[in-house]
Design a protein that fits this description.
147 residues; alpha+beta; Cytidine Deaminase, domain 2; 5-stranded mixed β-sheet; 29% helix; binds tetrahydrodeoxyuridine
């Protein structure tokens, strides 16, 4: 997998540390698959998130979306990087729903997957979701076809 564009090493270390710490708050009694996430926002601040499951399974919220929503709720509107940590031998990338949410605020965001081995995923959002639907699509003028 390709490496992401240059990213300050201390920021990256802080992001990864935050994602690893965030997994402790994971609420995953059904899947028993805890996930931690950290997001670097436009202001330079880091926001964390964990997965939050629900007895009504379809309402489970992933760690990445929790982190992005926390950033947005704090007033951020730009996401520069997303880290996802799983306590597994192999790293994981964000699911499709999370990719769509990341696209809204960070179409070019760095995406890093880390785990409990040296394996890692280092990519960018646009590589994960190259032909995404986003705000720009909604800004198009409507043609006569819409009746
Ligand atoms: N999950 C995440 O938090 N992030 C991902 O990228 C994939 C999956 C969560 C959702 C659910 O709580 C559990 O992992 C199993 O799918």
């Amino acid at each position: 997998m390709k490496t992401i564009p240059p990213f300050p090493a201390p920021t990256r270390r802080r992001l990864e540390k935050t994602a690893r710490a965030a997994v402790r708050a994971a609420y995953a009694p059904y899947s028993k698959f805890p996930v931690g996430s950290a997001v670097l926002a436009g202001s330079g601040k880091i926001y964390s998130g964990c997965n939050v499951e629900n007895a009504s399974y379809g309402l489970c919220n992933c760690a990445e979306r929790t982190a992005v929503f926390s950033a947005v709720a704090a007033g951020e509107r730009e996401i520069k990087a997303v880290v996802v940590y799983t306590p597994t031998p192999l790293p994981n990338a964000p699911c499709g729903a999370c990719r769509q949410v990341i696209h809204e605020f960070g179409p070019l965001a760095a995406v890093i997957g880390i785990c409990d081995s040296a394996e890692r995923i280092e990519t960018t959002h646009d590589r994960l979701q190259p032909v995404a639907f986003g705000p720009r699509n909604l800004r198009q003028r409507r043609t006569a076809g819409a009746r």
